[in-house]
Amino acid sequence: MSKRKHESSDLIILDDDSSSTSSSEVIIETHEKPSCKYGSKCYRKNSEHINQFYHPKQISLSKEALSLKEQNSSGSKKFKVVPAPKQNLIFLTKVHDVPHASEINSTYSLSLKDILEKDKQGFVASAQFNYLHDLEWLLEQYPEENRDKPLTIIHGNSKRTELDLLAEAYSNITLVKAKIESPYGTHHTKMMFLLYKTGLKIVVHTSNLIEADWSQKTQGIWISTLFPKISSESKKPQIAYDSKTKFKNYLLTYLEHYRDEKLNYWMQVIKSHDMTTANVFLIGSCPGRFPSSKKIFGHVRLRKVLSDYLKISSPVEQPDQLVCQFSSIGSLGPSEDKWLCKEFSQSLSSCNNSMSSIITKPILIYPSVEDVFRSFEGPLAGGSLPYSKSVAIKQPYLNNFFHRWRADKTARTRASPHIKTFARYSNDFKKLYWFLLTSANLSKAAWGSFEKNESQYHILSYEIGVLFIPSILNEERDFFDLNGSEPEFLVPYDLPPTKFADKDKPWLVDYLLNI
């Protein structure tokens, strides 16, 4: 079995040499030419281009897949548009093929161009933290007058790639290579710094910097307010310019762990801006082994914040619901009580009420095979859902936790999810106690795991997310009200989640063979 990176995937596609496939598997021919970045949608007809680049042929689908494809095209469904999110809450990315796209997408969705076009006249410089980068496409998203402004790209490529070659042609681009200690770790953080003459914006999101991630997938975005620059005449200490969530201090702590002098410029920029309006907590991960007393990264960080700030009191007879929604799954151990329903669930169940019990059976939202086939992208959407058979067969207990990807209220059931969210709800799903939008999938590499009798924890990857706690936005509220026609928070999927039926199977990336 060989490994190769797929353009639209966050992780590695496994190329299985076996010729046998199940009824739902898809076979795509192998090729040696570099892939055309426009894939099967390429409109170029000249022979030189066609001979130089590989263009995928129409996918050969099984009878089951063809049946699902026919169901996809049998009329469109009308969706009720949910209200626009309030300031500083999440947005979704625009999806090209959403029915009634102009109405739904304009309500609460943004493209990368939308983000970069705003305040373009006062734009100074930017930084892009990410996993996958299509540099030429990325530059096209910036307003033309800002494409030569300083751009720092933070990546985790261990070897010299096309990104390095292209960056050398631009004098305004600086590359920062994140230090990754393990071959199983990645630089998975998705964040932007946008500097203007009038202030600084921080954007945390879930999309790779490639066209496919911003066009037909469900993705999440959080955009800060414009943080103003601190007056040079100010005599106040730095702490006076941080929020009650200690957003600024944590962001600096996170950047320090890159241990790269090229980021000193951005650290000084952050120090020079007033971030008192930041009303979210940053939940980050950085590679390393940390003593359990140092609660700064991974699920240990989330546990600490929830224990300190979350006000909650749930009756024992109606336990709350933990919902974990993601696009990839790592190796979680041979049984549910090794990590998922033990240390991870304990962290997600934390609050400042010592009488509240641990929620040991989280709901896991992950696409089924049917969900992927019915998506706008069809089975190719599965390239960004890299849960492999070799991992799945070692943890069959997860099948008891899986729920379908359903997002009719946001018109994104067929927009395959690359968004990652974690949340706690009341038993009837009418109250939302906290919500985390993050780059982290369901894996120990992203969240960390305890070692040495819980005296330390080990993390392999870089991740970042924003945590919303209602009382931080409004001291009088302990939850976001989801009841009624105007919910107080934009939940990207439908509630209550739909549990897998007996016939449902989780999507495995092995259904895409020999790419």
From TrEMBL:
Q: Where is the signal peptide?
A: none
- Where is substrate bound in this sequence? 190, 420
Q: Where is this region: Disordered?
A: 1-25
Domain PBZ-type residues, every copy: 33-57
Q: Where is this site: Interaction with DNA?
A: 443
List this protein's GO terms for biological process. Answer: DNA repair
Give the active-site positions.
188, 418
Q: Which domain of life is it from?
A: Eukaryota
> Which molecular-function annotation in GO is an example for this chain?
double-stranded DNA binding
What Pfam families does the record point to? Tyr-DNA_phospho (PF06087), zf-CCHH (PF10283)
Query: Where in the cell?
Result: Nucleus
Write the record's keywords in alphabetical order, separated by commas: DNA damage, DNA repair, Exonuclease, Hydrolase, Nuclease, Nucleus
Question: What cellular component GO annotations does this protein have?
Answer: nucleus
Q: Which family does it belong to?
A: Belongs to the tyrosyl-DNA phosphodiesterase family.
Cited PANTHER family: TYROSYL-DNA PHOSPHODIESTERASE 1
Q: What is this protein called?
A: Tyrosyl-DNA phosphodiesterase 1
- Species assigned in the record: Brachionus plicatilis (Marine rotifer)
